[in-house]
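Deviations from the work plan: none for this task. Representative record:
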Amino acid sequence: MRNGTTPKQNTRNGLFRLIPPAALFAGLALALCWGLVFEYAPKESTLGLPQKIFYLHLPLAWWALTGFFLTFVAGAAYLCTGREHWDAAGAACAEVSLVFAFLAVISGSIWARASWGVWWTWDARLTTALIMCFVYAGYLILRRPDMPPARRARISAVLGIAAFLDVPLVFFSARLWSYIHPPSISLEPEMKMTLAACLVAFAPLWLCLTALRMKIDLDGRRLDALQAARLLREDRCRDKREVQL
Amino acid sequence: MLRTALIIARKDLRLTIGRSGDLAQAAALGLLLIFIFSLSLAPGQRMSAQSAAAIFWMASAFCQVIIFSMLHAYEENNGQKQGLLLAPMPVQSVWLGKALAGIVLLMIAQALFVPALIVFLGQEFGPVWKAGPSVVLVCDIGIAGAGSLMGALVQGQSGKESLLGILVFPLLTPLFLGGIRVGSLAFGGADEGIGDWMGICLAFDAVFIAAALPLFPFAYNAEG
Amino acid sequence: MLLRLRDIARFYGPRLIFSDISLDLSGGEILLLCGPNGAGKSTLLKIIAGLMRPASGKVLCDKELNIGMIGPQSCVYSELSASENLRFWADLHGCRFSDKDMQDMLERMRLAAFADEKAGTFSTGMLQRLNLARVFMLRPDLLLLDEPASGLDEPSLAVLWNETAAAAERGAGIVMITHHPREAPLSNCRVALLENRRLCVYDGIDAFPGRENGPPAAGTAAAAPAGGERRC
């Protein structure tokens, strides 16, 4: 239980104050990317229009994976330090990244339908994303609100670490399993450029959502801590009064 | 750590065997699954080796969930967990003890599944079936290592069996894929990159043992 | 000094259970801990045992203590027999314990006749006796007993007091939660009252005012430094 406002808290609040401008930037960057995707990048010769999904799919998958990695880092940091903002960070990363991963799986499935005529193939990346969806959905189910906060933080840190260690294993096993290796598409320079822009533009979006989620969580905890501090203070005041009596 | 782990494993096995209903419940669920899958076959039809292996591992997976929530539940009712936490031993002994007991119980159940596969799903042993048990053991080590850790996470929560399943099934995917591929070989399927699959299974075992050792104390000690 | 508590506080959710708890316990000393229901006696015991972390404050021990604890639950595997239960805990603690020692202990707890019966068939009092046998058998340096007398009949109570006194004699520190400190026939014990989120320690039962005298004067407890915010 940490009470009061520490200098660290202030810098954290300062960082959170960057959310609105970052969100604005994310919106503009994404709008620009949309322009690039439909106006600048050439239409792919064999796949045609569905190839554009790629510009959405890849950034989603990348940032989801980054988020899961950060959940892993936050879990390890929580277990080492016991500071609860790491727990909030891990949970926020997992939650936002789960949404990203889920959208990546859906867009990947549509992509598979367009290019191979099936909704699902044993593509290693797609399978890994799906398995990660399941794992981190389990992570969020495990974080029940009725658990004592310290226990919840600990067990979700443990799961966050174990889950990310599983990612390479899932990826390699899925790659070994699949017969269909999706043909690699040779990208035109304009396509590469667009893809890079999309990858970058999704970063502020992911960051804003995660930071917002974390802020909500931390604000809730802060309320609890303030309440606890008030109780402690009142208790001490009563103590002093009794001494005077 | 090994000494205390063996003491805990022996005690858990004694409790489970003494209360034979628990293991029977786990095994019965697996056997039932195998039987139900036999309904997908026309009379006289034989299921492909790969499908049979997949059903074998699915039955094992459900069995594992029941076994590990049961093994951790032994310490839940009368506060024995407190006793274990206060005993002069690394907490990891509990993880190892439960994992060892779990491997034994899981293999007992799996020994029952094999004849069921032969009877209900029309399987026959392939030429390399003798390698089967060692492959099963390699997979079971990973299953038990992860199950013993995750069992501690869901301990004391409502609906812990299904929660354990939700957490463990996706994590175990690499093992299941490997187990299915190698298992289909035991039932006469085609040999495809067995060495690679064994490599993945062994890597899984190594990763989860290495992760569980530092993580288990955090998972097990309930009250912060 | 076996154990030192410094400024311990603990919350239950947002509710403060106690704060500014300080306490010293040396080897061979018996401390009777009393207080109304919900005052946090069991929580304090768990914090001493290291099973729970305090929200603030420190628990200091000179060495790695071998702790024996009786909680509100029996800590008994009901599918194992009485002797199997004892054997399991003795093995786990690495105690060299012959069959005769075990027999003696079961006899002292008047459980010898039921040594090979499954503990699941035992009554509450028998379970408590088996639990006590487990803890005393392990010869811990620090004994934490949460209402050990509950469910015990007169002869068993006598055994409890004897064993407790014997443990103190060989140098173990003992903290015992009890609602009736005056009924404990133990010499040289201190009494601590946990009430209104504070702990007051009295040197001996005679100094203990009892609760009918109203709440004890504040200030006998470890002085509460005013205003300081605490962190873990």
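Confidence is low (pLDDT under 50) at residues 1-7 of chain A.
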